[in-house]
Amino acid sequence: MELLVLLVTPVMLLGAWISGGMLERRHLKSLLLLESGSSGVLAITIEDLPPDWHVESCELVMGNVVISQDYFKRVAASIKSIFGGNIGVLEPLLERARREALIRMKGVAHARGYDTIINVRIETATLASSRGNGKGTAGVEILAFGTAISLSNGRGAKV
Amino acid sequence: MIISNTQEIPGKTIVEFFGLVSGSTVRAKHIGQDIMASLKNVVGGELTGYTELLSEARGEAIRRMSHQAEDVGANAIVNVRFATSSVAQGAAELFAYGTAVTVE
What we know:
- The structure holds two protein chains of two kinds.
- Chain A is α+β, with helices and mostly antiparallel strands.
- Chain A has a single domain (2-158), classed as 2-Layer Sandwich (Translation Initiation Factor IF3).
- Helix content of chain A is 43%, strand content 28%.
- Chain A has three helices and four strands, in the order H-E-E-H-H-E-E.
- Chain A has a four-stranded mixed beta sheet, covered by helices on one side.
- The longest helix of chain A is centred in the first third of the chain and has 35 residues, at 2-36.
- Chain B has one domain (2-103): Hypothetical protein apc22750. Chain B (Translation Initiation Factor IF3).
- In chain B, 39% of the residues are buried.
- Chain B contains two helices and five strands.
- Strand 2 (55-68) of chain A pairs antiparallel with strand 3 of chain B.
């Protein structure tokens, strides 16, 4: 049994390292593609509009994503956290998730015919794992939401 | 029902306040999807099952909040906020709340 654990753990680590890195690069590539063509929706965190913006209609829009870290990086992070300081391996994951959530929110707004989202908020929540003693997390959810508005006179050159 | 997370509904004025309205739902994924998610946890990346679960659940919380606002006679909800908490292993509570108002 112990031998099995000794064998399986390095294999899992190696597998997670390779596939995790591959998935991350693929995701970053797709994010760049989606962001470059990101439908021209403007997302702003303020809610007070310039007085010459005449809002026709508005609607709450949101985008969410649940993302998890690969096994290799989880182990790397737990080792790193003994010494404290900046845990670099965890940063790309959350950054990717936020970008993805924002893209999804903009996508929803665009599909419904809006071109501006005001009062954008981004929230993070960790989900408890259903396995083991509940100490591990099943994933991290990022939610981006805001109020999509359409302007009767168009956003035009004001931005 | 107009729902917004801004203090006021853009382009409209609030004429009446009805107070706080809220909606919540607790959801868990069935065991099969949980196992899939735990496998996905090894390689990392998006847990699509959970993404869908949470977005459906949040939709349900918003619907319940809207029903409550309709019941008191409001036509809009402003300043909507969301809260997520893991109440038990594998289950999450999605909570949406806001202020029911009448706008013109």
